[in-house]
Amino acid sequence: MVDIAVIPGDGIGKEIIPQVCDLVTSIDPSVNFTFYNISSERYINKGITIKDSEIDELKSYNSIFFGAIGDFRVKPGIMEQGVILRLRKELDLYMNIRPAISFSRITGNNIHMTILRENKEDFYSDISGSLNEHKLFRQKGNFYNYNIDINSESDDTIYYTMGFLSRKNLKRFFNMAYKIADTETVTITDKANAVDMYSLWREIAIEESEPAGKKINFEYADSLAYNMINNPLKYRYIIAPNLYGDILSDMSSAMVGGLGYAPSGNIGDYSSMFEPVHGSAPDIAGKNIANPVASILSCIMMLKHLNQTETAGIMEKSVENVIRNGTIPIESGGNAGTHEFINKVKNYCTMTKNNI
């Protein structure tokens, strides 16, 4: 029995994720999904983003399957920081894996790129505020401790967010990144020419590459963005800090058909969470036009991570066959709505399973 927690979230997440779960159980009924109502709707009605008790429960599952979060009625950042970023921190999910792999029927190209993104530090920190206030930031844990006291004044309105990197976290991040990358050479990006803390990033990247037997090429993030667009086939694995990894992975998804084809995985030593990269898209939710491929691919990534390789293989082969044979999502100019596409994949899964 594999126990997976499911957070459909908001918008198209609520529309797509339950259908993908049904797809999985049609292949393997032993996969058990437990749904959690962690959503903007609950926040609007009850003022709750995510409960401490829910965090504790989620730690006990084999993995988490996440849909999307966000609602036009909620101030940007509240749900994203209160749910997604908190889950990454509380569950210690320090590795973010974002593949950008094209379907030739959709794009006509053969891109096969994966961005390995540091997932907990950099500029996605909660050390933020205004210079015209006194704030104290404390972190006490088994991994690292800090106590930062900021007391300053300004004659202007100045806000700050402090980026930080830690040696311990970077060592384990690069260690895992080099294990995931199945190529001898990898590309590592940053802005070490403008941001001094990336000198530590480069130092540890080099240290960990030697025992891993990796050759590394450094490229500044802005230069890499330019080169990725001009020659995407050059890149197989890109290792990136949190902020630049977020931006570059969205850009890479545009090269393979859009965010509707962009899956992701958040990995730690003890927990994991998988989610499509796209947002909740409330403007198209419930209209049967959202592209479900990213959610299906995220689920396939999750099943592979949980060693459910047969079910993952059936789903992967079915998605490839459905698209190759001309069932194209509306997002890509085809006629297949959300439900139609998933049902077509389900039919292929049944045929594939029966032929094994």
UniProtKB/TrEMBL annotation:
* Molecular function as annotated in GO: metal ion binding; oxidoreductase activity
Q: Which residues form a coiled coil?
A: none
Q: Which of UniProt's keywords are assigned here?
A: Manganese, Metal-binding, NAD, Oxidoreductase
- Domain (Isopropylmalate dehydrogenase-like) spans 3-345
Keyword Oxidoreductase belongs to the record: yes
What Pfam families does its record include?
Iso_dh
Q: What cofactor does this chain's UniProt record say it requires?
A: Mg(2+); Mn(2+)
Q: Which PANTHER family match?
A: D-MALATE DEHYDROGENASE [DECARBOXYLATING]
Q: State the name under which the record lists this protein.
A: Isopropylmalate dehydrogenase-like domain-containing protein
Natural source organism: Ferroplasma acidarmanus Fer1
